[in-house]
Amino acid sequence: MSRQATITHTNTANRGIGADVTRPDGIPKVQGSFAFSSDLWADDFLWGHTLRSPHASARIVSIDIGPALATTGVHAVLTAEDVPGQLNFGLEHGDQPVLAANQVRYVGEPVALVAADHPDIARRAAEAIVVYYEVTEPLTDSEAAPQAAPIHPDGNVIRQLNIRHGNINATGEVTVEGTYEVGMQDQAFMGPESGMALPDEDGGVELFVSTQWLHVDRSQIAACLGIAEAQVRITLAGVGGAFGAREDLSLQLHLCLLALYTQKPIKMVYSRDESFLGHVHRHPAKMWYRHHATRQGRLVKVEARIVLDGGAYASSSGAVIANAACFAVGPYKVGSAHIEGLAVRTNNPPCGAMRGFGAVQTCFAHESQMDKLAVALEMDPIELRLLNALAPGDRLITGQQITGTFPVAEVIRQCAEAPTPELAPTQDHRNLPGGSGRTTEATDTARGEGFAVGFKNLMFSEGFDDFSSAACRLADGVATITCACAEVGQGFVTLAQQIARTELGIDEVILAPAQTATIGSAGSTSASRQTWMSGGAVQAACNKVRSLILADISAKWGVHLDGLVLRDGLICTLDGQQQASLAELTANRAYEADVVYRHAPTEALDENGQGNAHVSFACAAHKVIADVDPDLGLVRIRHITTAQDVGRILNPTQAVGQIEGGTAQGVGLALMEEIVLDNGLVRNASFTDYVIPTTLDMPDVTIAAFIEEPEPGAPYGAKGIGEPPTISSSAAVAAAVRAATGLDLPRIPIRPADIALS
Amino acid sequence: MNRVVLPLSLQEALSTLTADPDATVLAGGTDLMVEINRGMRRPTSVLALAKVPELRRWEITPNRIHIGAGVTYTEIMTTEIAQAAPALAQAARTVGSPPIRNAGTLGGNLGTASPAGDTLPVLATLNATILLQSANGQRQLQLDEFMVGVKRTCLEPGELIIATELDRTNGGQEYLKIGPRNAMVISMAGVALVADLDTRSVRCAMGSVDAGIPRALKAEAWAAERIDWDNGAAIDPAVAQEFGQRVSTECSPIDDHRSTAAYRRHAIGVLAARALNRVCSPKRNGHV
Fold first, then answer.
1. What is the topology classification, in CATH, of domain A26-34+467-598?
2. Cβ proximity of A154 and A276 under 8 Å
3. Which residues in chain A touch residue B94, judged by CB atoms under 8 angstroms apart?
4. Residue A158 needs a FRET pair 20 to 30 A away by CA distance; which of A14, A214, A413, B157 works?
5. Chain B residues inside the 8 Å CB shell of A698
6. Would you list the domain boundaries of chain A?
7. In this predicted structure, what is the pLDDT of residue B198?
8. What's the gap in Å between the CA of B261 and the closest CA on chain A?
9. What is the pLDDT, as a whole number, of residue B37?
């Protein structure tokens, strides 16, 4: 892919901060030699399997495990009655049963577990469990949920958040209105859920699993197993990807239950089909918007009503609707706003965290509205965005003043002004809509260009005590970093080493496995937070070690602390006259430190949705050129240009990877990625029918600019970069297709029929 | 699973199948392995045809093309088969990804007998004969005789698909297919079309819009009368347009999770019109 990135601070010589350090797992993943969590093995282990509800809503009348237990090779069949501790778990609210007891609320809800000698025996035994269901009509319409009879003791409204800002009765001379819809996207990560649990001799359990947040897994597991947290020891196993889907428990608890019951190691591996049922998805959204502006194009007020379908259980819906509402108007200065945000419970599959976390849905709506407003004002859409762009010192609709860097206008300008490179010729069908299907000639197409900008918060918000823990040990000149940060592809695996090299002036750094036994929580690998939080913790731990060494040497040599430096594996005076090898210095005594790192505290939102709820913000913009075959409704994106507010680039290749990958995920949501539901039933739980972009769907991406304005308070000034690319790319693709067709297209994904039959 | 047999000759394959008529035949595995992995099928024994040399051959004669059942999509795309039957190569190119095309076979596509099978509309337009063989002898069937419903064939116990024979035609041929993305897709709608200059006829068949692989017989005859065969098969674009509409009435699409009946019928009309324009326009564009 073409890159025209402006990269500063790059230092490839020292493999420290700013260097293009290669991921150790990159080539093994491509070559197929990487050990995923599904490759775990132990002597004499059993295979676990989950029996899931085939109904979106039903009362469980009876469960007969007899036939399953009688199957040769079956060691255990467990139901809700076998859960020793708390019966429910959940990220924000413990509202989800470990195993359904009396009621199932979505298709795929776990009902029973089997452990057997062979995966196929386990699967067949699960089929032999006789469950009598009294099927009831499911609640699947999110807009009807608040008024409908409660489908859960906690009610059908998971969270309502209203934002009232400025004068909510204000009006503008020009108004535009629209209703928008976003379908249910899946994270579609590599490496379906899998792991292994091993019982220990003291009634505890050791779990190896691919996950996003080890310590919160641990607290939920311990509570439901009825044992102490220290008795649950979790180690991160090889993760393919996560994108939010591994933040909730899936098979973690089930593995541990079976291991403790059978006192044998248990392995579980979801198939891809089961994975679609086994984790949360991106919330489908229904959104109504009205924008008010002056004749000159200044935004006066935005009104919106946002309904997110949380599915059967709460997961992180409360935080997702907060993001959707807080960032509902986009990175624009708006004096007044009235936003109604609602996350509801239905009998659809549960929804929770996914890259972009609520901001993706509203970005599609606010950017569609900005384009509509530009038409109403007869104004250039870029000019309209620049006129209203937020800047440091401005306030969000939550009343929070932006105190960090936030170069929205620069991001818009750089992206909009970047020239588009020459496009690949259309003699080749692969560069045309329909691709290898050869449906379309160049003369059948119309070209459109679309633009969008979006933003979101970095790190956890609303007063959450957000922290990360890290330890550094320097011995024999080698630094060992311990941190429970889950590497799910985001790049901590290289970053931790880069930080230690930069801080300690050494080259050899070992990143110990992420686990819960000897280190505190690193928080979740989500919310674009780990580079800042765990990066910050590692930096602080290394700094502490450096201080200890400096203090010792300062006393020994009689040199002031400021006169000493660690570099090239040495500690030396600034003039280099006096020096000692760090390897020798740490041969007989190790220097160690561990730290807990926190970002600046945030506040809860008040009853009007006002407050300093967020830590920091990042934005990105996308410009998309799309060729559309209007007769068939097929789309070929020809080129994407982006610019992003990154604070500072710490590893250029990984930054590019995040931006290209995040953009592709947005392209998928705009054009094809949707879990199709029929009365609560997932109709396309496979990669045959849940399609994600191929190389013929994803064009080259030009990164017009990394806008590097270091963020105060952030380690090295770096902002998280994983989420912004997914926020604005979907909206920009939709805008390009609209420009090519002249259609409204108020819903993503845009399906061929939405274009061809309208 | 009890047994996997990997015969090294057709005779061995047939005798294995005669002895164990319930054996599941593996001819590439791009459908079968998906079903096994999903637990939808649990075969007790498997007859794997990958090493049967008789099934791996093809032969091109002046009028006909003989393609063994074990010939892969990649071979169809990359050998002289592609010149002899361009639309078949175009269809093969739309199947899956390169690894899938290296494994999947023409015989497998027939054996699965899905209405979405990409090569099937092409076979229908090239007057394909399906060669079946058992220990008792050989049968030759037309595609519409062979495929009797959605994923249903008239294969009898002990019988194997051994080859397909197709017409070589003088004139343009096309396969156009729509999926939910630009590659690696199951067809939502597909059209194969042949303009046969020698017989002055048009043959058009459709995929994913019926229980079988319907031919648009009425529209074919209507178009054949309106093509100026003496002038390089020239056609009025308005005729092609109407041809598309007529073709779209000769199928029975349904709504499912991949698309809607309305879109499929509409798409068939557009694809058929475009295919006819391509084979009839002076500037032919018939290669992958």
1. Aldehyde Oxidoreductase; domain 4 (3.30.365)
2. no
3. 436-438
4. A214
5. none
6. 26-34+467-598, 46-137+192-239+246-278, 285-461+604-756
7. 96
8. 10
9. 87
